[in-house]
Amino acid sequence: MIDFMIEKSINYKSQLLMIFIVGNNNVLLLYPQRGEKMNREDKKIAFVASSGGHLEEISRLKGVEKSYDCFLVTERSDFVIKDFCEKRYYVPMMNRRQITFLPKFIWLFLKTWLILMKEKPDFIITTGALVAYPFCVVGKMLGIKVIYVESFARVTEPSLTGKLVYNLSDLFMVQWEDMLKEYPKSMLGGGIF
Length: 193
Prior knowledge:
The strands form 2 sheets. Strands 6-5-4-7-8-9-10 form a 7-stranded parallel sheet. It has a 3-stranded antiparallel sheet with strand order 1-2-3. It is built from 6 helices and 10 strands. Helix 3 packs across helix 4. It has one domain: Glycogen Phosphorylase B (Rossmann fold). The protein is an alpha/beta fold and 193 residues long.
């Protein structure tokens, strides 16, 4: 379970949103500017994670997932998380060292564009890795807010995806205090497990 509480103000074209991720209940609350009303159903979240540990980490946000309209994007693999996001999109697993990586990566950007245009999420929440990068880039181009949670396994050194999306993300969270040195504008969230 998440053992942290975060309050972050983000100014988007004169709309102030407050984002809270609260402890053991895993609740994400989005508040509009004073005087405006917002229904929880008005917000849609895209959860994006590579298979394995990244997917396991993002599945810990079950309370958030249950509270909002959402969908999951992950790699097709034997690793399956049950009871997390009914709507899912699968992309093939990729390895940066494969000879076919570049065409597959370009295809992933196209698939990302199609998914985001179809679903129109308000937020992308991701724990990485490779599959997350196109979603963060295309999401920012489309005006979608990006929340990146650096991997629990990254205790002292940043991940490649973290380095790439650090300046793209609206909220960048780390799970270990030592990582604040690597990402000075990030927020310490504590362990997601």
